Amino acid sequence: MLSRIVPLQAPRICKDCVHFRPNRDFWRFDKNAIVFGHCGKFGKTDLVTGEVEPQFASICRDDESKCGVDGSHYTSKTSGTKEACY
């Protein structure tokens, strides 16, 4: 039986995505700015003010209807293009 060879893909890391926003409340502490970073693609809109409150990137990665584990909405900062999801 022949097996299909699938190329290895580097994991999609939120901090390398164009939608990632470090948390400014923790800016002095670089690690926390990343850990508590937000995803600019997903958020909740305040129906009174119209302001969009972004969601934590970790929540978006846990939710398959958003980016999910595979990073389905990931766009690389370096290439600026959306990468194919295998």
Q: Can you walk through the features of this model?
A:
This protein is α+β, with helices and mostly antiparallel strands. The mean pLDDT is 80. Strands 1-2-3 form a 3-stranded antiparallel beta sheet. A hairpin with a 6-residue loop joins strand 2 and strand 3. The chain contains 2 helices and 3 strands, in the order βαββα. It has a domain of 49 residues.
How are the SSEs ordered, and which strands pair?
Elements: E1 20-21, H1 30-35, E2 38-45, E3 52-56, H2 57-62
Antiparallel strand pairs: 1-2, 2-3
Give a brief outline of the structure.
The protein is α+β, with helices and mostly antiparallel strands. Helices cover 14% and strands 17% of the residues. It has helices at 30-35, 57-62; strands at 20-21, 38-45, 52-56.
Summarize this structure as a short list of keywords or feature phrases:
86 residues; alpha+beta; three-stranded antiparallel sheet; 2 helices; 3 strands; 17% strand
- Order the strands across the largest sheet as they lie in space: 1-2-3
- The tally of beta strands, per DSSP, is 3
How much helicity do the residues have? 10-25%
* Derived structural class: alpha+beta
The geometry reads as globular
Fraction in beta strands:
15-25%
Question: Measured on Cα atoms, how large is the radius of gyration?
Answer: 16 Å
Low-confidence stretches: none
Total of helices? 2
Average of per-residue pLDDT values? 80
The main sheet comes to: 3 strands, antiparallel
SSE string: EHEEH
What's the end-to-end separation, in Å? 22 Å
